[in-house]
Amino acid sequence: MALSASRHLLGQQRPAVQAVATLRNGGKAQPGASRVSKAAPVFNTSVKTLQEVVRLGKSEELSNRQLFARLQADPKTMDRLDMLQLGTEKLGRFERKKWFRYIEPEVKLPHISFFAGAQVAASFPQESLPEVGIVGRSNVGKSTLVNQLCGSSAARVSDKPGLTQQINFYTADNDFHLVDMPGYGFAYAKEDTKKHWLPLIESYVRERKTLRRVLVLLDARHGIKANDREFMALLDCTHTKYQLVLTKCDLVHRIDLAKRHLLVSQEVDKARNCIPRVMMLSAKHGAGLNELRKEILHTCSLGQRYLGSHKKKEAIAQAEYFEQLKIYKDTARSKKRRQ
């Protein structure tokens, strides 16, 4: 697909099969394309963002897939992902797997329990404790994240998009509230029901004075889609502080995850009310959850209470990890010289 013909955003709402078929046929949809391999990645990032990150020659015309391949991942991000074991690892033919790993001191949030649900704005509970909202496209893993963050099963989860059909309020030991909102985008729900979700969410973010931050979850395989941009624009218009979180990082190769993080960070820089730091995690494996727990505690002004001795433990654990990493790199270099 020529860059000159790439005026639309690749993250627009359309079936994944059609998106891949379009990319493979020079920007023109192929009528007969109905099936595609599951392994084929779909890069839902705007061509404009890719052009800003990748330096191109004046005469070059590259597809978005080629642009993505040209991206140079940030070495610091790669080191961080390697340390936290985020993303799947690609080992070279003669590369040894590490015999050690970073054992991160666990951060525990209070146990949560469901205490209110609202299908209309009039049903919102009375404002009292600090609140952190969780929102994202349907089936991005919102309810799963709520459970994993607090080690509970209070939130109902399903593989079927659209299970959460109201705003659910969970209290964390009367210290703060986690608020699970319905997903936007495709969902298995009645059209009349889905029409009320966005106005309900908009009422919540506009009116809620105790709302400290909204966590916008993004699928790490796809990045920011059109629906995500629309919701981010809404949060900017309502002057609501929000932060982007890449989920399902266990399904993406580490190098591609670092590139995805780079692209998302580029778009975050343009947003007015978005927290610059883009979080990454895997709710399935637990990697990155401690970072988000700390972020939530600091957001709710509870860091001193829950993280008193954590910083010291974390410094010790990191020192041990970097010591082992140095030995590993020295061993790898000496082995390479012998070969």
Structure in words:
It is built from eleven helices and seven strands. With 339 residues, it is α/β, with parallel strands linked by helices. It has a seven-stranded mixed β-sheet, sandwiched between helices. Helix 4 packs across helix 8 (254-268). Helix 7 (226-237) links the parallel strand 5 and strand 6. The radius of gyration is 22 Å and the shape is globular. It has helices spanning 16-24, 47-53, 64-70, 75-84, 142-150, 191-207, 226-237, 254-268, 289-299, 303-306, 310-338; strands at residues 112-118, 131-136, 167-172, 176-180, 211-219, 242-247, 279-280.
What order do the helices and strands come in, and which of them pair?
Elements: H1 16-24, H2 47-53, H3 64-70, H4 75-84, E1 112-118, E2 131-136, H5 142-150, E3 167-172, E4 176-180, H6 191-207, E5 211-219, H7 226-237, E6 242-247, H8 254-268, E7 279-280, H9 289-299, H10 303-306, H11 310-338
Parallel strand pairs: 2-4, 2-5, 5-6, 6-7
Antiparallel strand pairs: 1-3, 3-4
Helix pairs in contact: 4-8
Distance between the termini: 43 Å
- The low-pLDDT segments are 1-43
Mean pLDDT: 79
Specify the structural class: alpha/beta
Number of strands: 7
What oligomerization state is this entry in? Answer: single chain
Number of helices: 11
Which sheet architecture does the biggest sheet show? 7 strands, mixed
What percentage of residues falls in helices of 4 or more residues? 25-40%
Strand share of the residues? 5-15%
Strand order of the largest sheet: 1-3-4-2-5-6-7
Order of helices and strands: HHHHEEHEEHEHEHEHHH
Give the C-alpha Rg.
22 Å
Shape summary: globular
